[in-house]
Design goal:
Layout: E1 6-8, E2 20-22, E3 42-49, H1 57-69, E4 73-78, H2 87-95, E5 97-101, H3 111-115, E6 123-127, E7 145-147, E8 149-152, E9 155-158, H4 161-172, H5 175-192, H6 195-210
Parallel strand pairs: 1-2, 3-4, 3-5, 5-6, 6-7
Antiparallel strand pairs: 8-9
C-alpha cells in the first residue's frame, strides 16, 4: 500500500498484479562472460554447495539422482568456497557439457538458469518456475528441460524422479534436439534476460503504471 509499483524477485505464483511485478529470472550481462565453443565431454554438469539445511530439497535430490543414473556426468559438490573452481573452469565445464543442471538454491532463481543460455548448445535442466517470471518464459521441451516440484514440509521436492531421468535420457539420445532447444534458450536469454532488457522492462512498467 506504500508503493505505486513494486518489483519483487521471488514473487510466488498467483501474486502478480498490475502493481506487483516479477523480475526473475536473474538477468545477465553477456559482455561479462567469455564462453568458448567446446567439444562435448560430459552429459550433465553441476557445481554448487549442498547447504541441505538452507536449500530447497530438489537441489539435493536432483544432484543425487544424476550421480546415480547419469554416469558420464561432472557433478561437483562443495563444502565451502575454498574448493570452488575458477570462473574460467566453470564456464568451460558448462560449454563441455550437453546439459547443465540448475536446481533451486534457497529460492527458485539462480544465475545458472540464464548463464547456461550464454553457452554454446548446452541444454538447461531446471525446476519449473514456482515463482512468477518475466518473459521470455521457460517452457519445457521448447527452450529448456524442466521438472515439476511439489511443496512438502515447507520446501520444494521433485515430484517425479523417474520422469526426470527418463527425460534426461530421452534428450541424450537426441543430440540434434538438444542443440535445437538450447539455441532457443540462448536466443531468449539474449533477447529478454540481459541487464539491458530487464532495465527496459522496468522502465516500460513504470511508464505504463504512471501514465
Amino acid at each position: 500500500k506504500d508503493y505505486n509499483l513494486y518489483f519483487k524477485k521471488d514473487l510466488p505464483l498467483g501474486y502478480k498484479t498490475d502493481n506487483i511485478l516479477p523480475v526473475a529470472p536473474n538477468a545477465v550481462r553477456p559482455e561479462s562472460y567469455e564462453f568458448i565453443n567446446m567439444s562435448k565431454e560430459f552429459d550433465v554438469f553441476y557445481s554448487g554447495r549442498a547447504r541441505q539445511d538452507r536449500c530447497q530439497k530438489d537441489r539435493e535430490e536432483s544432484v543425487d539422482l544424476i550421480k546415480k543414473h547419469i554416469i558420464n556426468s561432472l557433478i561437483i559438490d562443495h563444502d565451502d568456497r575454498k574448493t570452488f573452481m575458477t570462473t574460467r573452469e566453470y564456464w568451460d565445464n558448462i560449454s563441455k557439457s550437453r546439459m547443465c543442471l540448475s536446481p533451486s538454491g534457497r529460492v527458485w532463481d539462480s544465475f545458472r538458469h540464464t548463464e547456461t543460455g550464454l553457452a554454446q548448445e548446452t541444454l538447461l535442466i531446471a525446476p519449473k518456475p514456482y515463482v512468477e517470471t518475466t518473459g521470455p518464459k521457460m517452457v519445457d521441451g521448447v527452450n529448456s528441460l524442466l521438472y515439476e516440484t511439489e511443496l512438502k514440509d515447507g520446501r520444494y521436492s521433485i515430484k517425479d524422479t523417474n520422469l526426470l531421468i527418463e527425460k534426461i535420457n530421452y534428450y541424450l539420445e537426441r543430440p540434434k534436439l538438444i542443440k535445437k532447444i538450447s539455441k532457443r534458450w540462448t536466443s531468449d536469454v539474449l533477447s529478454g534476460h540481459t541487464i539491458s532488457a530487464r532495465s527496459e522492462y522496468i522502465i516500460r512498467s513504470m511508464e505504463k503504471s504512471f501514465s
